[in-house]
Amino acid sequence: MIRQYLKFRKTITIACVLSLLFLIFLILTKNKNSNSSELTRHHKRLDDDFQDIGYREFDEIPKKEIYVLGEKKEIKMELSNTVEDSTKRELREVKAKVEQLEKKIAFLEGRIPQKYPEVQYLGYKERKRILVTGGAGFVGSHLVDVLMIQGHEVIVVDNFFTGRKRNIEHWFGHRNFELIHHDIVNPLFVEADEIYHLASPASPPHYMQNPVKTIKTNTLGTINMLGLARRVGAKILIASTSEVYGDPMVHPQPESYWGHVNPIGPRACYDEGKRVSETLAYSYAKQEKVSVRVARIFNTYGPRMHVSDGRVVSNFIMQALQNLTITVYGNGKQTRSFCYVSDLVDGLLALMASSYSLPVNIGNPVEHTIEEFAVIIKNLVPGCRSTVATGAAVEDDPQRRRPDITLAKKELHWSPKVSLQDGLQRTIDYFKEELSRTTFYNNQTYIDFKVKTSH
Questions:
Q1: Family, per the entry (predicted)?
Q2: Which of 26, 206, 284, 291 is deepest in the core (most CB within 10 A)?
């Protein structure tokens, strides 16, 4: 019985082992077939993808690129033209970007503080605190340059009616320089040792634009400056003009001549305004003991003149530079005497430093007709093709104007040094610079160092 049980047990064990081996064989066989099928499907998918890619690329190829052997040369030329057009387009885009970058660089360069002109050092006793009204204007800005270079502390007061910040921007931030945006028709309270009162429009188009304002500047403004000089004990120089002589009956004009002025004419707002300012100066000198100086300034020219201020020099130079007709108003026989701005500044400084208190003519005694002056400027501009033509005469235009500077030579030891040719050449160079200005940010401030270093 036991033997039969053992035999049966052995048979069952063998059967189980064989069944297990068969099951393992079936599993292995199934996995192999599955892997083979999956690999086949993977290869098939790759083939399909490859074919799809091939077909897509084939479809995207322009018809121009499908060519036979005989058309190969023509297709290559078309491809070459396409590449060339693309290159040109890219170059244009690059050029536009470069131009934008250049503009940005110019803008940033304009914001970088520039190096100040070299100034002298003055001790506490020698250094003066000097107020210049109209210091951003044509004459005022040149005066400010000299005073700064000499080492003084300078306060510029200007309402920018005709003055420009660009004329004095090279001093912004300097420890000796201060700018006050103010209209002197209103009172001003500052401390100063000397006052140069230059504030007033000076060219006919400017002072005729607002005649009431011109009169106020030369009367109320002068009263305010004289009052300031009285309060702080400052010496004051009043910038008068040759216009106080009007259309003169005496030639040349000495300081003793009382003038021939139309009190109700178009120029009266300036002429009479300056005459009143002289009267005010000497009334304050007599009554309030204010130390006054009066400079009668004749025609002046030079860099920083307004391009369109309507004066003879700027009109003729701008017309000549642009090959426009040089227009002479009237018959052209009226005369003027032109003084370069650096000579004028020398005269103002000499007058302020002197002890002479009566009016003094500051100008160049060399006289030219307007017609001659037009020809001189035309000849100084290279390649000028302008012609000179006459226009209608201007009302109350003085026919002769020439200063008698005998008093200036005697009392101030002053006389002009810059010749008309040299002065006009410097002025023409400046106006060329103005015409070439392309952006506001270009630093093209004019400082005539050759003239300044000679002071």
A1: Belongs to the NAD(P)-dependent epimerase/dehydratase family. UDP-glucuronic acid decarboxylase subfamily.
A2: 284
